[in-house]
Amino acid sequence: MVKVGIVGGTGYTGVELLRLLALHEEAEVVAITSRAESGRRVDDLYPNLRGHYELAFSEPDVRQLAACDIVFFATPHNVAMNLVPELLQAGARVIDLSADYRIRDPQLWSRWYGEPHASPEVLRAAVYGLPEVNRSSIAGATLVACPGCYPTSVQLGLIPLLARQVVDPMHLIASSASGVSGAGRQAKVDNLLSEVADSFKAYAVTGHRHLPEIEQGLSDVAGSPVALTFVPHLLPMIRGIHSTLFARRVDTSVDLQALYEDWYADEPFVDVLPEGMYPQTRTVKGANRCQISLQVPQGRDTVVVMSTIDNLVKGASGQAIQNMNIMLGLPEDMGLKQVGLLP
Amino acid sequence: MVKVGIVGGTGYTGVELLRLLALHEEAEVVAITSRAESGRRVDDLYPNLRGHYELAFSEPDVRQLAACDIVFFATPHNVAMNLVPELLQAGARVIDLSADYRIRDPQLWSRWYGEPHASPEVLRAAVYGLPEVNRSSIAGATLVACPGCYPTSVQLGLIPLLARQVVDPMHLIASSASGVSGAGRQAKVDNLLSEVADSFKAYAVTGHRHLPEIEQGLSDVAGSPVALTFVPHLLPMIRGIHSTLFARRVDTSVDLQALYEDWYADEPFVDVLPEGMYPQTRTVKGANRCQISLQVPQGRDTVVVMSTIDNLVKGASGQAIQNMNIMLGLPEDMGLKQVGLLP
Amino acid sequence: MVKVGIVGGTGYTGVELLRLLALHEEAEVVAITSRAESGRRVDDLYPNLRGHYELAFSEPDVRQLAACDIVFFATPHNVAMNLVPELLQAGARVIDLSADYRIRDPQLWSRWYGEPHASPEVLRAAVYGLPEVNRSSIAGATLVACPGCYPTSVQLGLIPLLARQVVDPMHLIASSASGVSGAGRQAKVDNLLSEVADSFKAYAVTGHRHLPEIEQGLSDVAGSPVALTFVPHLLPMIRGIHSTLFARRVDTSVDLQALYEDWYADEPFVDVLPEGMYPQTRTVKGANRCQISLQVPQGRDTVVVMSTIDNLVKGASGQAIQNMNIMLGLPEDMGLKQVGLLP
Amino acid sequence: MVKVGIVGGTGYTGVELLRLLALHEEAEVVAITSRAESGRRVDDLYPNLRGHYELAFSEPDVRQLAACDIVFFATPHNVAMNLVPELLQAGARVIDLSADYRIRDPQLWSRWYGEPHASPEVLRAAVYGLPEVNRSSIAGATLVACPGCYPTSVQLGLIPLLARQVVDPMHLIASSASGVSGAGRQAKVDNLLSEVADSFKAYAVTGHRHLPEIEQGLSDVAGSPVALTFVPHLLPMIRGIHSTLFARRVDTSVDLQALYEDWYADEPFVDVLPEGMYPQTRTVKGANRCQISLQVPQGRDTVVVMSTIDNLVKGASGQAIQNMNIMLGLPEDMGLKQVGLLP
Lengths: 343, 343, 343, 343
Fold this sequence. Notes:
CATH architecture of the largest domain in chain A: 2-Layer Sandwich
Strand order of the largest sheet of chain A: 8-9-7-10-13-12-11
Order of helices and strands of chain A: EHEHHEHEHHEHEHEHEHEEHEEEH
Helix content of chain A: 25-40%
Largest sheet of chain A: 7 strands, mixed
Distance between the termini of chain A: 34 Å
GO molecular function (chains A, B, C, D): N-acetyl-gamma-glutamyl-phosphate reductase activity; NAD binding; NADP+ binding
Subcellular location (chains A, B, C, D): Cytoplasm
Number of helices of chain A: 12
Strand content of chain A: 15-25%
Pathway (chains A, B, C, D): Amino-acid biosynthesis; L-arginine biosynthesis; N(2)-acetyl-L-ornithine from L-glutamate: step 3/4
Mean pLDDT of chain A: 97
GO biological process, one term (chains A, B, C, D): L-arginine biosynthetic process
CATH class of the largest domain in chain A: Alpha Beta
Structural class of chain A: alpha/beta
Oligomer: homotetramer
CATH topology of the largest domain in chain A: Dihydrodipicolinate Reductase, domain 2
Enzyme class (chains A, B, C, D): oxidoreductase
Shape of chain A: globular
């Protein structure tokens, strides 16, 4: 059995790691840390785990974590970048679900996160954990930076168009919508049910922190700079991201449906829907899956791509486990066969 | 008191007309028709109306309706176009909340609604009931075609940009999202709570019936053809439309915030928000109001406009009453002063 | 115009007072206090109020408040009991929406609220503001303690049974369910959308603070002690309380439907539904109304009463305004004619 | 592999069987019938199943079904009772999720379902499929009648009290609340999102069809007649049942917490929570589990039990698979280890 440690396990990506790993045939969670909840059983905080874990939260302990085969960071940004260097030196392999190692350029990171990066030397060694792009680098990595939730849905939706250069890369548009769990489990008035139920709004229109991450990933694929107008919205529900993507076609000779089906033919967790079927967040709820469809309305020159994921699974904890499987040479879908919970 | 008749009052726009007219100082509903519910009290079907109405649904009766000062059609499309000619001849003034008289070209209507238009001669006389564009024509009209819900939010959001020709009119994008009440009160599996709660999806991506209506209205304002990529989405909630609009700036010399504030300065029901405040559907819930804000992310050449309405109020019954007030020379906001229900 | 002051206006009962008073023909809000938001416009915090108020929050100022005809306290418990004595001395009339003056016995209050009562001498002068019981005392009161939300729905549902002594008063059961807005606008993890959406649970089963208030009110009506098993539940929605009440009949000779209809025949805001129609929280959403129905299943000896209110209206701010109208000799329904927002 | 057939697979219990069986190590669905959707792939109707099934719906065919090891009926009532006799004769073993074989007395069945029972002779052979009561009979049964959703939650909550005779069996009260998926996937106005979102109501107060089923089951356990006042309510969400149960203690010498913990100590799917922790529907969402807690408020004589299940899992398809495992001698929890989806 693979020994797994989780740093910062009280948030939603933490409990989601526990939910998924409970059924993973080869992984066993041996440590989960939380300063605030140290000593409390995980199934006392999250009663859905009763019967699945005997584990309690503990104070972070480098030696204990270093003894794990894999350590997940399910922390807010600014935690991993301070602890990871020591863990790497102690020989651990780390999968960071936070934003700390997603952006290669520490100055760019700094500009968006408002503080200097604490471990730029490690930053350079981190592999961006989008398996559909970086599978082979992930396999050998000691530090994997799991993509953000929006970046996963937007990149998977746009990659074929940019890689094949069939659209104008400088005028991409993403109108994305996320469930509230993306905002985490912090006590904030803004995320009270009474504030966000029964309503819909855009936010962070001037610039969301996921923007530079998306542009970095898409530029890599396009081989040239890209510019994205990214407008995230908040949905009155818990889980799910739906990205509606717009791009101007510059090459109309390509059969886009065939392009997407071919591009993702061998991907276990990207599902290109048949023409005319559109994705819904509910069909991927609880599942490690991205469903994508596309359309060119009225046969004009704008292509519309729709892409859905569960932000806590393919957008976070599921993708992290997918990366773990790749790093450890396990079957990539081990522990990740859950069917979406519908209805 | 103004005598009001309502044809087809069992749907959501019907009950919303009743809700709003219950507090209208000068209007009295004297007849409300429904073949299916004939004889049943309106407050038996809609118990929120108890204590406000003694009225029962009745079979449609042209003489009774013609005796009204104003007749609202709160019917599905294909009803008004068959009954309105007779009512107009009998001297009634009609406000149609359905799609029958919104599109000037009967062949275009036909193409989108899949049947010939039943009264093209009357179609020509209909005034499109968006007061912010056609107020003076509405005042003298005998037949007003109330705009659709999406068209209201999209047009109010884009009009200043197109009228002042600061954006490319041939590549407009609308990513709109609506509560489920927009689909009406028909018994359809697709609109069951278990099908649409907790989920989000795009629909009608190849072409929604509101598209030609929006393009017609925006072309009038722009003075030239426009092309819109329009993607509607379904929100897991009852009321509210949020449109996120994208346009490419061709003239960057204009102060867009000032443009919008000036354009709508005298409009009682269009509220341009201060810079940095974004609209939410909840702040207009139950109110006859459109809230708008705009932003140019990263100072690039794409402008983003956000526009919200309550689809049943400013997107339907509230706008219809606004039109009635204009037609009858009443204060335009009479009966329409409700404050949005927040939280 | 009546001059109104509001202490602690940033919470949900505060914004609800503003929503309702915006359309009140005789009242004008001249001051609204908040230490935290002092200087901020109310419509900046609550954009649904844009166009209805020019007011900003201000620091509490006894002289300014004392100059008002009516001062509402929309504060958490433990605020009013410290400030009200001074205001009363300065000649103000006060309506307290918090729990501070609801329980006559200061020691009982102390036991449930965990601290000594700060102004027991004033407590004795307070009138419990349930108009259906205390209308005439309210008219002459200088201090009115508005009932809690659960207590309003439970008492209105049980009063006729207890007053007429047709049920066993020592084995009453209330299974109540409330929307999350009842928990207020505090930043608590427990009330995040991600914690309470899509779920249902009982809470405070060992004893909710509203229990002694309910038992006090029902004892008064019954003329003898009562004992209630009260289990509150949290609904995954914003507004509304539904109480399902169970009582054992000791006198089966009474026609219960007739009893309820007669009892509330003259009450403007209590609506006894016809036999076979059950209340829903949506039919009273946004309205100052309690809808009640009852049933004796299988003709056995247990009577079931269902009672619904909007917790923020008849359960708080609407009832407070109803009390204000009574105190000032205004028509009791002034400003309270809103129709429930359905759908 | 066990060959499984499903009759009537287009409803919510059908898709839930498919979701759960997709990960069952020993079962393979070889046939799923639907007259309406015959020929359509199951993953076209339910895209969450894409990648998990190649199966299409087919016309019901007795020979094909009889060749299965187990046939599930996921049909409305009145279907199974007509088809099951033939299947049993052909040698199939049947698990009926509908109401047709739950009530032993065909005349009682008839009174509640409004028509004669079509196969009373088979009715007598059916075993009521509540494993916590009938495990050994289920093991040898050819026909198992799966309990209804409410009956599962109410019975599991009350059984220890009645079996140990610590409460008055003639005055039981169940105030239950269910998500809307319990009403199935029929096109009914009453279950539209716009009708039931954001609201809460009681229904079927005069008598719900699950009442005789519950009373039959509880009488068996009590060894004497029982009388239950059962009030179901509709929750504005998809999945989950919460039953709040009230009973009058006649024997106060029993430690109720210990009684429950002992009673269910060996049950894999009944989880008695520690004192002071209350169940929530979200902690069992998607999981085959019943969570129970109890309390005696104010130390009076009324005991309150809270019991939650996912109506589609432990209340339907999960319990059906649990029965299948028992019938086939498989580990009882095979394919049923899913962790509740929280948040």
